[in-house]
Amino acid sequence: MKGWRPPAPFLLLLPAVLVLAAVVIIPLILSLYSSFTPFRLTQPASLYTFVGFRNYARILTDLEFWTAFGRTVLLLTVALNVEMLLGLGLAMLVEKATRGQRLLRTIMMFPMMFSPILVGFQFKFMFNDNIGLVNNALQSLGLTNQAIPWLIDGSLAFFAILVAEVWSSTSVFAILILAGLLAMPKEPIEAARVDGCTPWQTFRYVTWPFIMPFAYIAMTIRSLDVARAYDIVKIMTDGGPAKRTELLWTLVSRTAYADARMGLANAMAYVAILLSIVFTVYFFRKLSAARTQIAAEW
Amino acid sequence: MATVSLEKLVKRYGSLEVVHGIDLEVADREFIALVGPSGCGKSTTLRMIAGLEPVSGGNLKIGGRVVNDLPPRARNLAMVFQSYALYPHMTVRENMGFSLKIAGQKPEEIAPQVEEAARTLDLTHLLDRRPSQLSGGQRQRVAMGRAIVRQPDVFLFDEPLSNLDAKLRTQMRVEIKKLHAKVQSTVIYVTHDQVEAMTLADRIVIMRDGYIEQVGTPEDVFQRPHSKFVAGFIGSPPMNLKDAEIADGQVVFANGDRLPLPARFKDRVTAGQKVTFGLRPDDLYPTGHGIHSGEDADVHRQDLRVILTEPLGNETLVFSDFAGAEWVGRMLNPRRLSPGEALPFCFDLSQAHLFDRESGRTLRG
Ligand SMILES: Nc1ncnc2c1ncn2[C@@H]1O[C@H](COP(=O)(O)OP(=O)(O)O)[C@@H](O)[C@H]1O
Ligand SMILES: [Mg+2]
To answer: What sequence ranges are listed for the domain ABC transporter (chain B) (predicted)?
Structure first.
């Protein structure tokens, strides 16, 4: 028997291809396909009913979805800006430190070492209206004598989530910007001072253009993070009260597992991923523009 | 246009004092060169003048006004850095116009000034490039252009040519000299290269370990060094400096070789005094191949054995053996010499120097 033998490279790559297919490609195709069906976990047969773009059409007019979408974008915008400012401030302070800079850098990374679930629990406790640290502190300082319903009022809960997010991830900005500051040549700053710049002008015209690419890298990383924000919210409010802190991914998971409407949930997930891609592309554009500007060699 | 005065200027880093109370008066429009070996405090001094380093003690005056605590922007000076320190994200045009923009001038006022400076420095065709697209020499010129555009009271240069190759360095040296003639500003120029200092400066300040060793015109520091250090630092190749003792009205070297005591030191030394004898290569030459310092030159003749020669074309450096050491001489209208050859040399003793061996100070009045 003269059997056909596949070429060696093909054979050698085959295991990798099989593993990739099993864990990435097939689930991806399956989920994409299921977003075109009315698939419910409780009715497996519904997986075979093809409904075209009905799920997507439904999302387009779904107020709940767009509210969660808008809230996610809002959280992303506010969190990224606040983290950017705080991270920049932190990085500049640490860069000024003449002693113990290494220690400060390590301490700065602590929040990143905690699981987001733990951060969620921690802040849930701190913002608790009865026994929380925040109310306790406010009352002791005499700033208020009421128990502020942090996690119960919609916008206060949003604020509490924002604080938790910012606390846990400002260090991403701080570390990347610090890396930029440390890599920056010192002479242009001195040249700017001699050229007549005030400290603010020196920052604005010399330091900032230089660290901008580093800030954009942090933005890219963090925009992906926040666009898929789930764990902290899940723990702190679970999208509540009355869906007033619902974000994209808490909505997706509720639709998928609580309502068991997997097809619709998958469609939502693909729209959400689109959002992430848009942000990533946007920040990458900014990054490469900023890099060309400072003629970076990387 | 301004004078600069340093009065007992001190710089400390923590408990480490690196500039020890130096005094210096720089006249308006003067070109001053600060020279000295690496680490002697030249940059530190310059940076204090610029306002980039706080003054730890003494007074710093620019145009008669004490500026110790003024930030750099209030001092109206321009500085050219060794690494050029161009703004990497700005074009040449923006780099050069930056200080004017900061000063609040309008773009249409800035443009002609930048273009004028670019013409002077032959940078017109590069105005829209970024620093990363320029060669070292071009970056250097942009750095100078940026300084000129500011029209400062005082120009500060910190080893501006040390990153250039030898040819470009010579060329830029001439450019800087022309520039000073044109802009007529006060210039303080730091270099470790004594040739740059000699060719450019009106006066040279020689620094060593945070002290000023000597201040003087190039002729001064070359012909009348106050100390052994200055004598050895200025001049290339360096002055021959050999330890000796005074005995029987002669200069006696360690191995017993002798030279007559130069006439001008007769009354200034005592028998048994430990000295360092100094003679420049120009004043030690094979007979017939050098120039006496004058008709009444006090020339001592002696046969020396040649160890090694370095032909430079128009002249040859001759290393010869005397008093158990190697002495450098300069041979004009050179002919070929072979190592080991003995030939008559002239020591022009009227140009010789004697320094106290302990203190290193000159023994001349
Ligand atoms: N930031 C600093 N901290 C401590 N010592 C310094 C600092 N900057 C310079 N020095 C010391 O001051 C001395 C003079 O330095 P510098 O002025 O740079 O010398 P140079 O004459 O080569 O320009 C050197 O011994 C140097 O080690
Ligand atoms: Mg230096």
So the answer is: 4-234
Per CB-CB distance under 8 Å, the chain A contacts of B79 are: 190-191, 194
Collect all residues with Cβ–Cβ distance below 8 Å to B159 and sequence separation of at least 6. B43, B82, B190, B191, B192
Which has the minimum average pLDDT: A217-221, A255-259, B89-93? Answer: A255-259
**Cβ-defined contact of B87 to A188 (cutoff 8 Å):** yes
Closest protein CA for atom 24 of ligand 1: B39
Distance from the Cα of residue B99 to its chain's centroid: 30
Nearest residue of chain B to residue A184 (CA atoms): B88
Domain that holds residue A100: 63-297
Nearest CA in chain B to A292: B89
Atom of ligand 1 nearest to the CA of B53: 1
Same fold for the domain at B4-233 and the one at B240-356?
no
Q: Are A124 and A235 in contact (CB under 8 A)?
A: yes
Query: For residue A8, is it within any domain?
Result: no
Tens of pLDDT, residues B70-102: 999 999 999 999 999 999 889 999 999 999 999
> Which ligand 1 atom is at minimum distance from the Cα of B47?
17
Residues of A in Cβ contact (< 8 Å) with B132: 295
What distances in angstroms separate CA B266 from CA B263, B294, B364, one per listed residue? 5, 20, 10
Which residue has the least CA distance to atom 19 on ligand 1? B39
> Shortest CA distance to B348 belongs to which of B288, B266, B282?
B282
At the topology level, CATH places domain B4-233 in Rossmann fold (3.40.50)
- Each domain of chain B, given as residue ranges in start order, spans 4-233, 240-356
pLDDT, one tens digit per residue, over B290-300 is 888 777 788 99
Q: What CATH number should be reported for the domain holding residue A85? A: 1.10.3720.10
User: B203, B216 in Cβ contact below 8 A?
Assistant: yes
Strand B203-208 with B211-216, pairing: antiparallel
Q: Which residue of B has its CA nearest to A202?
A: B102
Could you say which of 3.90.76.10, 2.40.50.140, 3.40.190.10, 3.30.70.100 is the CATH number of the domain covering B240-356? 2.40.50.140
- Ligand 1 near B39 CB (within 6 A): yes
